[in-house]
Design a protein that fits this description.
five-stranded antiparallel β-sheet, SH3 type barrels, Ribosomal Protein S8, Chain: A, domain 1, 3 domains, alpha+beta
Length: 321
């Protein structure tokens, strides 16, 4: 069981209809009498007749009521403060979320911008690479043209000699003992064997097999040979390998090296050699094979098979001694 009371407003002389649980109600008779205009002496006399204990109790109840109202007011203030704090917290959290969203947008935009710039740089690099490749091809074409012109100039005398020899070959066959001129070697020799389109010629201490169109029969005055350009007699088989590597050389360097090597290989008695020029763009391979087509010591050549290096290698067969 608990005490309870309904509050009474002594100012308006009306009940507030507010139920207070836990506190007994106060006696408001004297206060009401005063408000209704009862003689003050009568009210004072009545107050004097009230026991001190009753007055103390009434004052205690008043203090308790004030304390309770203060506590309730503090509680209300606390609730309001808490509500305000929660509101501020929600607002701050919302601001933080918006800031994070804005930050994410800024980062995404920066990332997209960076990716676009990277793609643009890549495109520029690809374009630059294409221009460099085009420039390299132009330079390579220019080099090919120059090399072709040089080859044409080199081959022209041989072609003219061949044409002249072919034109007279039908009426003049070579026979053993004939003295001949070998334009490609700038040497003269003596025919020691003839077999249709092939002849065997003795040049000094060297004997070689050539095609008949590669030599000219000497009639009357014989041309004076100049310093030999290809025939060498200093090599021995002991130090001539069966293959030569030309990779990394320019066309001119490779052909000069190959020319000396073929002479040495022939003098060393090698019947077949392996020329390694690599695949690459094919420029060096074409130069080597065009050179081999005109060389008097070469009877045949072919690309390597799958076990020999394929298009990166040319197998060369030399004339026999």
């Amino acid at each position: 069981m608990q005490n309870a009371s309904v509050e009474f407003d002594v100012e308006t002389l009306l009940p507030t209809y507010r139920l207070t649980v836990g506190l007994p109600g106060r006696s408001n008779a004297l206060a009401i009498a005063t408000r209704l205009g009862l003689d003050a002496e009568v009210v004072a006399a009545a107050r004097a007749r009230v026991s001190g204990e009753h007055l103390a109790t009434d004052e205690l109840l008043a203090d308790l009521k004030d304390a309770r109202q203060s506590a309730e007011a503090n509680e209300v203030a606390t609730l309001e403060a808490r509500s305000e704090a929660e509101r501020v917290e929600r607002e701050l959290r919302n601001r933080l979320n918006r800031a994070e969203e804005e930050r994410g947008k800024i980062l995404n935009e920066a990332r997209r911008t960076a990716e676009q710039e990277i793609e643009q740089v890549r495109a520029e690099l690809n374009e630059t690479r294409k221009r460099l490749q085009a420039a390299a091809r132009e330079a390579e074409l220019a080099e090919e043209r120059a090399r072709l012109d040089a080859l044409k100039a080199k081959v022209a005398p041989i072609v003219e000699t061949t044409r002249r020899v072919v034109s007279t070959a039908a009426s003049e066959r070579l026979a053993v003992g004939d003295r001949v001129w070998i334009p490609a070697l700038n040497q003269r020799g003596e025919v020691v064997g003839a077999d249709g389109e092939q002849v065997e010629v003795q040049v000094g201490n060297v004997r070689m097999k050539l095609r008949a169109v590669q030599v000219e029969k000497i009639a009357g005055a014989q041309p004076t040979p100049s310093t030999p350009s290809r025939v060498r007699v200093t090599s021995t088989g002991a130090d001539v390998p069966s293959e030569i590597h030309l990779r990394g050389m320019t066309a001119d360097e490779a052909l000069s090296t190959l020319e000396k090597y073929l002479d040495d290989a022939y003098l060393a008695g090698l019947a077949r050699v392996r020329v390694v020029h690599g695949k690459g763009t094919g420029t060096l391979r074409r130069a080597v094979r065009e050179f081999l087509e005109q060389h008097p010591l070469v009877t045949n050549f072919r690309a390597g098979d799958r076990y020999e290096g394929e298009e990166g290698v040319t197998i060369v067969e030399l004339v026999s001694r």
